[in-house]
Amino acid sequence: MKKQQITALFCSMALMMGNVYAYAAPQDITITVNGDNIVFDGQKPVIQNDITWIPLRGVLETLGVDVAWNKDTKTITLVEGDKVGILTMDNDVFQAGNKEVSIDAPVQNMNGSAMIPLRTVSEYFGADVQWNGETRTIFITKQPQVKYVTDKTYKKEVKNDNGEVVVLATAVYPVLTLEVPDAKRNEINKMIEKKAKEAVDTYIAQTNTDKTDADGKPITYQMVISYEDMYYGNGKLSYLMTAKEFYNNSNHTNMGFGMTFDLTTGKQMRLSELTAVAAGKSEQKYIAAQLQDDVRKHPTAYMVDAITTLDNPETKLGYYLKDDTTLTLFAEAGSIKEAKEGIVKVDIKK
Question: pTM of the prediction?
Fold first, then answer.
């Protein structure tokens, strides 16, 4: 399948953003998700310049992806479980978790609807996309996943005197489901919820809402907190909590915090409970030493001062379980690799 044949999808939301482009009449395209035809009440799929554009909500929401539009920051946030994707109007970069992915065309306003990329987004959320030129049908399939958790969202915003949202903080955090038979489930859920809400509340309280840019317009701030790389097994729950901050839709920072719980005791596990740490050696020094070993093995993959940066106790490091035999150590984005590469992760055997 040619890459240009399926590149983008557009959301059937009437949005007030940027210029409006005129496009030809809809084409006779059929869209199926797991064998079921998608019925479009409003905007129909169209083909322009050999690119297929389809309405967002009817497809991704059928795949289980939550879609949220922020008219003030002109961002589209896509969330499913531990995966978060962010798109910005008139921008050709898709923030896929910790990575920035270039897309074939900028997200744009088409006759009042936001157009965003089909293949990049759907495959990020685990779907397969196939095109049949003879029947003019797009086949989208996604295998169901066993879920041990569901999601909850906690959101707060701050508006200026003109009613504009200048600070927005959203936390999507996991909640262990009733199918999990562990007695400490509720205790862990309360702990996870508390940390997520504290992160949002702290960000809202500490962000300065009075700053303006060179044109005198208010600077907008957005924090998106979510989780990824979840592991559930052998009585443990582990994942990476991420926090992405955006200033005026760009210049984002990317931070992480590892979470590992013992499902039998309800306690958060220390690094020494997961791997052998020499007596008297702190978690920070252990992680730094392991990451420094990887820097020495792959020096061209890191910044030239990575070794020194890892010696700095202020460098934000952490850990979580990738599986029961693999530990993932990580460093904050922009610390030892370029910020665009996201949070730096190195796997080691326990």
Answer: 0.62
